[in-house]
Amino acid sequence: MADSIRVVIVDDHSIFRSGLRADLDASVDVVGEAADVPSAIAVIGETQPDVVLLDVHLPGGSGDDAAGGESVIRGCQPSATRFLALSVSDAAADVVRVIRAGARGYITKGSSGAEVSRAVHAVADGDAVFSPRLAGFVLDAFGAVAGETATATDELDRLSAREQEVMRLIARGYAYKEVAAELFISIKTVETHVSSVLRKLQLSSRHELTAWASERRLL
């Protein structure tokens, strides 16, 4: 199908992966599967899917990312692929942790195949998707209050209009060449703008930039 979404399913239970693959709409094309962090990073790198359906608890995580899901997201950056967490857990800590790592949404495994398919399309289109009971965790964690909105405005004032455009695209996971094509500028100019953005916002990497933009609801 012309408008099909290419998806990789990452979950350590093969029966769940098989069942989910069977339940997804025909508009969702599953191009790969993985059961742990290393194989997930490899499959995503090889297939370059539009969306990854990602369990938050996976074998192979380490250090601060011991749960595993965050390791997959960080291990695949920079990338235009978007990540949708799909987990049995509805714990606030799991939700917040994977969103901070860069996931565009979080839904529970109680969702139907049709609901997951709709969420995949929404995330592929750039929207954020959360199961209703989880949305409150995200709003609380990322400070949807007037004071933080004002702070974000002050910080954005440090950036030029072009830097703000570059910042949003990079934070959304666009590669430098994709930003260059989107804004009709050279890759070298993109690199210059990114360096300036990181310096002005006192950030050290694009991972921190994504977390910064997510916390301020700028994506």
Automatic annotation (TrEMBL):
The keyword DNA-binding applies. The modification 4-aspartylphosphate is found at D55. Gene3D superfamilies: 3.40.50.2300. Keywords: DNA-binding, Phosphoprotein. InterPro entries: CheY-like_superfamily, NreC/VraR/RcsB-like_REC, Sig_transdc_resp-reg_C-effctor, Sig_transdc_resp-reg_receiver, Tscrpt_reg_LuxR_C, WalR-like. Residues 6-124 form the Response regulatory domain. This is Response regulator transcription factor. Residues 152-217 form the HTH luxR-type domain. Transmembrane segments: none annotated. It holds the Pfam family Response_reg.
